[in-house]
Fold this protein.
Amino acid sequence: MNKKILVTGGLGFIGSHTTVELQNAGYEVVIIDNLSNSNRDVLDGIERITGMRPAFVEGDCTNINTLHQLFKEHQGISGIINFAASKAVNESVQKPILYYRNNLNILLNLLDLMPTYGVTGFVFSSSCTVYGEPDKNPITEDAPIKKATSPYGATKQICEDIIADVIKSGSPIKAILLRYFNPIGAHPSAEIGELPNGVPQNLVPYLTQAAIGVRKELSVFGDDYNTPDGSCIRDFINVVDLAKAHVAALDRMLENRSESPLEVFNIGTGCGLSVLQLIDAFERANGVKVPHKIVGRRAGDIEQIWADPTRANEVLGWRAEASVDDTMRSAWNWQKRLRERGLM
Ligand code: WQD
């Protein structure tokens, strides 16, 4: 089996952890990243963990000529994992054109070039956001796709449809859509983790910054939801576990084990945890208090959603393994490492 893989957005949060797991599994990785939300130092972190430095192309996947050049220089790529995308929900409401342009053009360029360069497997980073507010939890892959609540969510839905249409049209490629729930934590070595740009929008980076004193306090958006403690419920998935799901998906396609050319899997733990429970877990696991206060609801938030990951467990042979406490320790160790490096 040819084990050379292109990881777009490979220096980002999920991309860097996936590169580590790919290299650990014997894959050779070529990363393309435009450094819009990452930096080159991530390559050093990957190398310190795995002893291998992935090939790196600084470039933008919206530029098809950059991709032509990459495929010519790095011959024999058999699979692509596509992380390159704009991903801030709030920003997407302000800048919809940027989101549709980036996320759709990147996908179209990659799908267009795959047959030309003999690339057969494609893993797409999708999101539980495609489900909207679930009618029931845990949610399975067959649940209805509801109208997206943001342009970001809409791009994920449209990208899923584009991939399905391209496969229906007779393209020789195979694809797996991974619908992530809420990825959190960092590599246990604290060599790589999440590097939020500016004020974090997501819960865990805000929480760790509040714990270390960069932010005054974490605002908990709402305690009047119809949930046991009133705060929202999510399925928080450890980023290393999530990374391993990508290796399982690639193995499956490249070893010709896919049951159909397009498969979709929920990637979550199967357990819902509330925002307040997650804060408790962080405090318990690390012995550190998180200054926080309850404020009003955040517009557009879903009340509760968690995965039914049975299909991924049984078909992909993948399962979330990390405990919430371990994940919270990894998030804190990473935050402390950023402080040591003078980055926070
Ligand atoms: C989680 C919970 C907030 C911040 C979104 C996207 C999803 C994925 C991840 C990826 C919610 C609460 C948050 C804070 C809070 N996208 N919260 N205080 O909204 O579930 O998912 O990000 O790249 O596709 O939809 O994640 O981490 O923003 O929020 O109380 O300061 O934490 O209200 O209930 P979300 P999140």
User: Anything to note?
Assistant: The chain has a mean pLDDT of 97. The two ends are 43 Å apart (CA to CA). DSSP finds eleven helices and 13 strands in the chain. The pocket of WQD is lined by residues 87, 89, 127, 129, 182, 201-203, 206, 218-221, 232, 234, 275, 298, 301 (CB under 6 Å).
